[in-house]
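User: I'm putting together a teaching handout on how multi-component assemblies are represented. Below are the sequence lines for each component of a complex, exactly as they appear in our records. Could you produce the 3D structure of the whole assembly as structure tokens, so the students can see both representations side by side? Please keep the chain order the same as the input.
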Amino acid sequence: MNALMVKALAFAAVLIIATIVVVKQMHIDLSDPINLLTMIGAIAIAVLTAGVSAKYISQMKTDKAGGELAEENWDGIGEYKNELPSGWAYSFLGTMIWALWYWQFGYPVNAFSQIGQYNEEVKAYNQKFEEVHKNADKATLQQMGESIFLVQCAPCHGTTGDGLSGKAQDFGARMSKEQVLHVINNGQNQLGYPMGAMPPGMASGKDAEDIAAYVAGGMKGEQPAAFAACASCHGADGKGNNGMAPNLAEYDATLVSHVLEHGKKGIIGRMPSFKTRMTPVQEKALAEYIQSLSN
Amino acid sequence: MFHWLEKNPFFFAVGVFLVIAFAGLIEILPNFAEASRPVAGLRPYTVLELAGKEVYKKDNCIACHSQLIRPFKAETDRYGQYSLSGEYAYDRPFLWGSKRTGPDLHRVGNYRTTDWHENHMWEPTSVVPGSIMPAYKHMFTNKADIATAYAEAVTVKNLFNTPYGDDIKAGKEAFESYKPKILAEAKKIAAEMKNQDVKDAVAKGEIPEIVALIAYLNSLGDSRYAAAK
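Assistant: Of course. Below is the structure of the complete assembly, with chains in the same order as your input.
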């Protein structure tokens, strides 16, 4: 064992002792595998540093260079024509093969996609949302409906749902007299109910006036005889025959979801479709909230 | 084999550049070419909409409104489907914006109406209480620059092959014969508005800025797709 090796071993020993002293001084908990691994790593680095330095220092002292010199030299410093070490050559070949795999399969199949991440996130959220609120109670739905209303509906219908003095539907009541007359005179075929189109002119003159006054008044009091024309589709109580035709008495969930899906153009103006912008639970919540506005 | 390169620093540098540039090109170009293509069914802006786009730029709407919906749930919940790069293919320049003092407008045509914009541009707090957006009443009297918008359409048609019809071509005569089409479009917008001065102006054949702007805002969204109903 020569003097250099002794020095190297001594140097490594000092580094190891220093590491252990630091670990003890800082009261590091070695039962934590991360701390233990870190300490083992530090010792390994110490040993490798000492060993590799010793190897090259001894090589510098003893090695005699040999082999064929390349023609060029830089300020008198030449270069031997050495073969590429075989380890390097194999790893180079390996990276080329890996690159082909990565280019053809690895990247295309495993590439990160922002849209993919978005889709997964939305899907997971929606699933959780539907599950949590599957049997939501009325109060929760109303609260949810109010938040949705304030973001999506309030710009036109107003924060209180009053329709901003005639700029949009006023949710304080179901329909005004003018609206009912407009529908009777022009028909209605926008909402996609199973009953289909309502033809214009189902009633006229005094009959239409009577129906309009009755519907606008909240379907209270004595039903005018002319309402029979409406009842065949909308039901005797005007509630729409269980979703076959629009509910004239109140804003039920079916009505809200049909208007959201198809939009509506009436005497006030046009409401765009809000298709795909809300989940079924959100539509239900919105219907609950809108109903609460007219009560 | 490449020993001579080591003696020629210049060619060595050229070689390094070529290798890195090639790697860059095969990563960047295919994606770029794909993304800059218009999405299927997208139509270019009409001349009236282009005039509205000019109003949008002139009054600096971009300072407070973005036109880029990022693929985050919080954004798609509020503004609708996230934006695709191909949707901006006919935007020269695109108006993404980088500041949202007000909401994003990339799909505003899907959920607001002519009528709403009219109320809102006249007096924003009448529809959005607490809004800090200023009123833009001058748009109801200023006239939109239809001639420049037409020239823009001709330019992008000739320069970038934007698919406009054969009736859009250079020359005063072509412009004069195209004008009725622009006016017809403006009349449709004015018919849904309530401001009598605007209606009168359009009936006289003039186009106030507000009409062009509303046409542009209505075009932001699904109505710019040929397949849309």
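A couple of points students might notice: Chain B has a mean pLDDT of 92. Chain B is about 50% helix and 0% strand.
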